[in-house]
Design goal:
Length: 191
Amino acid sequence: GKTTCTSCTPGAYQDAKGLLTCKSCPVGTSNGNTGSISIAACSSCATGKFQDEIGNDECKVCGPGTYQDETGQTGCKSCAAGFYNTASESKTISACIPCGTGKFSTTAAATSESVCQLCELGTVNAATGQTTCTSCTSGAYQDAKGLLTCKSCPIGSANANTGSVSIDACFPCAFGKFQDDIGKDECKICG
């Protein structure tokens, strides 16, 4: 027979005597020590880390595009669409960086700013961290990508359409009509 007992390996413990096997540390924890005699030796994973398997000697690091602001977790939280995170082991949601103004992204857990796309012609975005851009209203247009505001149709013209991509959408007022203001959707009748 055996003359000595075997110590529990890292990631395990045994809180009773005379048994053949050790107990695994639960998910969300790790234990780097040998010969542990209590589940208390299984430490909760720190913020920025997780453990989704039992019996491990260390916790895994949350990768780019994610964060973990709680201890003892089995996974990481994804940065929302409209945000990205290039760093590993992020501990707060503030690690998720918003896409800038004039841009948008529909990708969650993004790992690079390259997911932030410019707003298309006829659309704008004045806020950060957005998943869509807003179409220009009637009376306006935008002929460039990635901008914050639309351009108003000039005096003497009007545009009833939304999302216009050119000043050509601003039609000159017809004979017998006028427009003495900018950014309008229709011309006024003379008289």
